[in-house]
Amino acid sequence: VRVLVVEDEILLADTVARGLRRQGMAVDVAYDGTVGLEKAAATSYDVCVLDRDLPGVHGDEVCTTLTRTDGRVRVLMLTAASGVDDRVAGLNLGADDYLPKPFAFSELVARIRALERRVAQARPAVLVARDVWLDPARRLARRGSNELSLTTKEFAVLELLMAADGAVVSAEELLERAWDEHADPFTNTVRVTIANLRRKLGEPPVIKTVVGAGYRI
Ligand code: CA
């Protein structure tokens, strides 16, 4: 899942980003609304965690612009105000969910996961392909009765391939969705991750290389 965090409190923004990355999410950070909109225009995010009270371009304006220009992204608005009126105002601007500060990190993660499921619409909470089983929310993956010990990137790649349900996913798409903007598109990082994933999944092989197109489960 690809997440954009727009938050002007640098410490909070960085702490949230670090925590979400540990959950296997690919996270970019913007410390103001202008940069946030620039990043959102350049990259297709699944979820935007958006502080409402931003300097420069206000969070409300970022929210309306985002939801008007990008039909895919789901907006989770953070705000210091916890009154019903503020919540309603946020939702009226097109935010998909709303979390008053201060919040528990676990609740933020659960809400992002819920929005991610909405992005994927009918995608089930647990993904199954033959004898491979993956639970994104609990970060568990199994093949048969063997629990797989995967790195966050391996887990994210496997999740994307399983969510595609047999369709081919290109290396570029894997790179865009599982890595953040610091990933170097010219390295063979996707290939290496796929190779490790294959080794951990064992025999018979479940990830097929489609030459010139990408990978599929
Ligand atoms: Ca703020």
Structure, briefly:
The protein has helices at residues 10-22, 33-42, 59-69, 84-92, 105-119, 152-163, 171-178, 189-201, and strands at residues 2-6, 26-30, 47-51, 74-79, 97-100, 127-129, 132-135, 140-143, 146-147, 208-210, 214-216. It is an alpha/beta fold and 217 residues long.
DSSP strand count? 11
* Largest sheet geometry: 5 strands, parallel
Helix content: 40-55%
How do the SSEs run, as a string of H and E? EHEHEHEHEHEEEEHHHEE
Rg estimate, integer Å: 18 Å
The total count of helices amounts to 8
> How much is the average pLDDT?
88
- Unreliable stretches: none
- Portion of residues in beta strands equals 15-25%
Sequence of strands across the biggest β-sheet = 2-1-3-4-5
Query: What are the distinct ligands in this entry?
Result: calcium ion
Termini separation (Å)? 18 Å
Secondary-structure-based class equals alpha/beta
Query: Outline, from the CA principal axes?
Result: elongated
How does this model look, in words?
The chain is an alpha/beta fold. The chain has 8 helices and 11 strands. It has helices spanning 10-22, 33-42, 59-69, 84-92, 105-119, 152-163, 171-178, 189-201; strands at residues 2-6, 26-30, 47-51, 74-79, 97-100, 127-129, 132-135, 140-143, 146-147, 208-210, 214-216. The protein has a 5-stranded parallel beta sheet with strand order 2-1-3-4-5, sandwiched between helices. Strands 6-7-8-9 form a 4-stranded antiparallel beta sheet, with helices on one face. It has a two-stranded antiparallel ribbon with strand order 10-11. Helix 4 (84-92) links the parallel strand 4 (74-79) and strand 5. It is elongated and about 55 Å long. The mean pLDDT is 88. It binds calcium ion. Calcium ion (CA) binds next to loops. Calcium ion binds at residues 8-9, 51, 53-54.
